[in-house]
Fold this protein.
Amino acid sequence: MLEPIQPLQRPDSLPVSFAQELFYYLDQSEGPSAAYHLPVVWRLRGALDAAALADALAAVVERHEALRTTLILERGHLTQRIAGHGAVSLQMEDLTPRSAPEAQARTAIRDNVAGPFDLEAGPVLRGSLLRLADDHHLLVLVLHHIVGDGWSIGILMKELSECYRATRERRAPRLPRLPIQYGDYAVWERNWLQGPLAEELSAYWNERLRQQVPLLELPVGKARPPVRSGRGGRHGFWLPSTLSGRVGQLCRREGVTGFVVLLATFATLLRRLSGEDDLVIGTVFANRNRNEVEDLIGCFVNTVALRVDLGGDPTFLEVIDRVYDAYLGAYLHQSLPFSRVVAQARPQRDPSRLPLVQVMFVLQNANPIPLKLPGIDATPLPSERRTARFDLSFAVAETEPRLRCRLEYSEDLFEHEQVVQLARQFELLLEDVTDDPDRRLSRLGEK
């Protein structure tokens, strides 16, 4: 039984969480990179109260210490400090006097998303409101991953909406009380990772990764550079509704989720491309399994390494079983920070690759929490981010009646046309395995 997370008195500085520590050292070793930025962009049409929106953002920042955090390295120890009021402000930019304001806005969005953060000086969140007309604005918010995650973005949108309404209605926001702050979680995490539960988690990952983890060598179009640049591209595509329906039928028949079937298909494709039976594929868990952190902005998400053995020419149904076992084990042991898992696995360090995991597969929320401002039509826009954290990432959103997919790839390694072809190979393979899941991997593609 885990001890509850308790609120602590605030000294001048607090220890950082393991996730913060990881992102800080990535920032120091690789240099600031937009790959670790979490941007959201909204087109706002209607009579916007810009001052109320600025006040609403300030209220959310005041409510969550993580958004007022900076990280300081002192005498070899990394600590976090909480800034006071006014740590973040909404920057206003009027584009109406300029020619082609939409083009100017796209440039401003790219600059906002790509601009570096100073993690020691702050702020770690920046916001811009671009005015294109009296009733037309673009809201750009960029949060560094060191203090947030995808779940945090949903909280930010929900609370920004409520604080805007409250400001307009001259009342207090109707938001749940926060029993703790992120700094309290960081202290708690450091303490419990010295206990018996952490030892149990470590034993599991030691067993899973005790044998040498092979490098995943995919056929790429470019020579791997000595150091990753972080430049990336994206290719989005939809799976046909008939194929999406067949995936659902297979899931129901085998009693597994769509995530497992799609991950098993992706693993099968990686095996075909690399010739490797022993695969390590990363995925992420929200890691918010405690009530105290459900409504808290902060970086809780944890990367986990799914090690899947596809040796022995299994049938696809057997691949599903193996992937499910790997996923279930990872789910039950997800709380050990990825940095600890990497340290235990001791992979060969190579500045051209991320340690342990080079390829990711994630299931995305198909219905993100919207921004709801009274009297405003708010539409989400692409963020213009052109980065890649991994060599290759496959994201799927379970939408009806079709599955929405996106491949994010390192432009250091892949040409865009290669990735388009890879997406087509995935679709054809998915057709094969849903048509005859009893077929062995060596016979896939045969008619």
